[in-house]
Predict the 3D structure of the following.
Amino acid sequence: MTRPLRVVAAMSGGVDSAVAAARAKEAGHDVTGVHLALSRNPASYRTGARGCCTIEDANDARRAADVIGIPFYVWDLSDRFHEDVVEDFMGEYAAGRTPNPCLRCNEKIKFAAVLDRALALGFDAVATGHYARLRTGDDGLVELHRAIDGGKDQSYVLGVLDQAQLRHSLFPLGDTPKPEVRREAAARGLLVADKPDSHDICFVADGDNAGWLREKLGDRAPNQGGAIVDESGEVLGRHQGTYAFTIGQRKGLRLGRPAPDGRPRFVLDIEPVSGTVTVGPREHLAVDGLTGIRPRWCGTVPGTLDGPGVTVQLRAHGEEHRAVVRVTGEKSAQTVEIDLLDPAYGIAPGQAAVVYDGGRVVGSATISATRRAAVSAR
């Protein structure tokens, strides 16, 4: 057994973080439960399985801490969360990009603000209920690996963590399938054993991203409407704001008339300044190259990765794409060039490209540009 650590267990009020806290204590660590108050105006009750940061969640976390037998506190990080996650989310959509707020929250809140505060208070590590595994490599560096339960694996949203953060992290659930976690919670007497998982974006409780953005952005949006056009420039319809669209979107276009060949149309491009949204057939969404900026490496900065196990994942639960990855430039301005050996569809600037070597996470980068794959004539 490793030496006992002083551990902050980040407790969301869900089953995963509760069992993670219980396991950390059972492993002999000195554990303190902390619930993060991330909303400035928390709702009294969650809507189904959506949302988080509610009063109900805080109460569930407190009850779980009582059952486990650990101290419990609430840390108010709502201002930091609003600035680093919510404002970033709004700004990215307003600029025509598609952000992932879960990655940003892990980077800026859970493993930066929380970890920094924990270390300042004399704690050694932060434990969370994320499904991922940590190993120490032959070079002594801490490696981040996929979880045993592929359906729940969350290594993608942890791909922003660097070596210093990984050295102070614990993921007690990485080797356990989710059904076993629920059974263990019930056996431990945790009332959250059957609580539904949260889905979608936590601060958009009803799941209506477009409606939420329309309400929050208001006059801050670069345009209040524009044209929906086909690839020839023909106007097919109008919209109320580019922030309601993402690359690859099919539903909600409201064009009123089908394509000449009867096939569905998809969003191919978004130009936020002019407000133009371009649509076309799905095959024109194929991408075989990406450029990434602001990379975050879990360990040593790679040069070129082109082995048989090198893959890139472009969505939280998306498929892996075989790839060749090249890192160029100085540390302060590195660029990641990615050639996809398996074309991807519906990839937008702002999304994260997380690089894997087998099951190990190498790092991540924010997509700044895509290269469309050649489309053969029908």
Notes: The chain is about 25% helix and 30% strand. Helices lie at 15-26, 55-68, 78-94, 101-120, 163-166, 178-187, 209-217. Residues 285-372 form a domain with the Elongation Factor Tu (Ef-tu); domain 3 fold (CATH 2.40.30.10).
